[in-house]
Amino acid sequence: MNEIRLLRPEEINVKVRTVLSGGKAMLLLYKDARVDMAILDEAFGKMGWQRHHREVKGNLFCSISVWDDEKKCWIEREDVGIESQTEAEKGEASDSFKRAGFNFGIGRELYTAPNIIVELAPSEYVDKRVKTSFFVNSISYDKSRDIESLSIIDGNGAVRYTWSKRQAKGNLPMEEPDKDLEAYRVEVEAMLRNSSLPAERLDKALRGLPSYDKKTLDSVVKMLGGMK
Fold first, then answer.
1. In this predicted model, which residue has the larger pLDDT, 227 or 74?
2. What is residue 84's predicted lDDT score, i.e. its pLDDT?
3. Which residue ranges make up each domain of the chain?
């Protein structure tokens, strides 16, 4: 049977699991159902796998079957889903599919992730709600398919966590804001205030300014230039 490859950085999502005391957040790595579909297509071909759902005592199960060309038969794995807080039926179906995918080895390496804890700036959270997004910057695996090293960045590209089996570094202190980027934001703010943007669009742009990275700022400047 075809081997399931390991997840790439861009296929791994990061969410805040919980906000801890002292301005820290615990992060969780996870995959979404689209990743399972893409890897199944890649490993077995679009016509080489199938899924179906069935209800057992009120619980929704998903079965994934893949075609084994050597044995000339379908190989099946299944698992149960958990309801989503927002969309119960859709969330349960998606969750059972992803769990069945784990049984085939899709993303199973995520179970070997370390405890990921990052420091938060006071402006990054209100009560238990974190306003910053996090992304996997790089990840590597050992011969056992376990995570060997991991780096996580925020939306501005600042490294917020780094870890490796050989030399566990834990979470890094938050990088100081890029002074050049801060100066650029000031320039863009002045351009916005002197522009002819409608009040509603101007207010929205100014409110988002503190979170804009260089690429977003460049697009704002380009947009303003096109208005002249």
1. 74
2. 61
3. 1-31+107-175, 179-226
Residue in 210, 85, 80 with CA at minimum distance from that of residue 154: 210
151 beta partners = 138, 162
Q: Any idea what DSSP says for residue 4?
A: P
pLDDT of residue 228: 54
Length of the chain in terms of residues written? 228
Cα–Cα–Cα angle for 50, 51, 53, nearest 5°? Answer: 160
DSSP output for 155-223: TT--EEEEEESSS---PPPPPPPPHHHHHHHHHHHHHHHTS---HHHHHHHHHHGGG--HHHHHHHHHH
Return the residue matching tokens 């939306």: 155
Mean pLDDT of 80-85: 73
Residues paired with 161 in a beta bridge: 152
pLDDT tens-digit series, residues 183-210 = 777 888 888 888 887 888 888 888 888 7
**CB-based contact 26:154 (threshold 8 Å):** no
Structure tokens belonging to residue 204: 């929205």
Among candidate residues 215, 119, 214, 209, the one with its CA nearest the CA of residue 159: 119
